[in-house]
Amino acid sequence: MFLFVVFITTVAYVFGKANGYGLSFAGIALIISGFMSLGSYYFSDSLVLATTGAKQVKKEEYPELYRIVENLSIGDGLPMPKVCVLHDPSPNAFATGRDPKHGVVCVTTGLLDRLNKSELEGVLAHELSHIKNFDTRVMAVAAILVGFVAILADIFMRSLWFRSSDDDRGRANGIFIIIGIVFAIISPIIATLLQLAVSRKREFLADASGALLTRYPDGLASALEKIAADPRPVRTASNATAHLFIANPFKGKDAKAWFSSLFNTHPPMEERIKLLRAM
Q1: pLDDT category, 175, cuts 50, 70, 90?
Q2: Average pLDDT over residues 249-255
Q3: Which residues are catalytic?
Q4: Distance set, CA 45 to CA 97, 110, 127, 204, 247 (Å)
Q5: What is the pLDDT of residue 170?
Q6: CA–CA separation, 196 vs 124, rounded Å?
Q7: Nearest in space to 83 (alpha carbons), one of 15, 37, 131
Q8: Which of 60, 71, 98, 258 is 20 to 30 A away from residue 181, measured at CA?
Q9: pLDDT, position 259
Q10: What whole-number percentage of the chain has pLDDT above 90?
Q11: Distances (CA, A) of 14 to 25, 102, 142
């Protein structure tokens, strides 16, 4: 997250110098990114649920699911989160919410149909670990910052079309214009890589924390095997929410090559299962 702030400040400074504004542009960018981060902090859970179409359920509707979440929350010392179900045949799950007091765990109907109790416990322990480790907050803010970098780059590129040649010579440094164009092209890619790197690391942490909570890593490992074996993607998943799911919701798009794997939202499933089996 510190790298994100430094990166956005650097990008904003370069764009500002290219337009003849210098540090003032960077300051404005930081203020706007701060407000955007606050917005994502307070409303990320509502936005995610609205985007995916997940619905909160009551204990009477899904008693076993509710009971497992309740027991795991007590065992981990967490407040009881909202329990939601997404009607989708693809087995998957996600967590959201800015902190444990506003946590949300969601599973698909496909997950409930495919997993046994110990496997479901493993998945839910993983999602509760995301809440306990504040991963949901980190990733919500990261997603907003990535979007902000893309907006900055777009504004800068558009501003180049509305500049006169006199304004270019008088107010802007030609070198900074060239650097700014390069930054406008690569900065959204770099910001996305930072976001995805954070996402992959937090998945490993949640796997380990979830296994520690249930004391049965094989349950989660077996659940991941079943999830990976199902070829159906989550219909309402998008690039903005893909990193929240326990497994890539698009299915079959995990790259194997080192460079292309940098763009994966999740670490390789085989590696996660191998680490869990070794515990």
Answers
A1: confident
A2: 66
A3: 127
A4: 5, 22, 14, 22, 19
A5: 47
A6: 22
A7: 131
A8: 258
A9: 46
A10: 44
A11: 9, 38, 21
Closest listed residue to residue 177, CA positions, set 9, 3, 33, 14: 14
Q: What is the mean pLDDT of the chain?
A: 83
- What is the average per-residue pLDDT within 96-122? 94
Strand bridging mode 82-86 / 55-56:
antiparallel
What whole-number percentage of the chain has pLDDT above 70? 85
Domain boundaries, the chain: 2-51+134-277
Joined together, the tokens standing for residue 74 give 């007590």
Please give the DSSP secondary-structure letter assigned to residue 110.
H
Residue-level pLDDT at 60? 94
| Total length of the chain | 279
Secondary structure letter of residue 186 according to DSSP: H
107, two tokens? 């599973």
| Closest listed residue to residue 254, CA positions, set 223, 221, 227, 274 | 227
Indicate the SS3 state at residue 210. Answer: helix
Q: Which two tokens stand for residue 99?
A: 């902190």
With CA atoms as reference, report the closest residue to 78 among 100, 59, 105.
100
d(CA 180, CA 169): 16
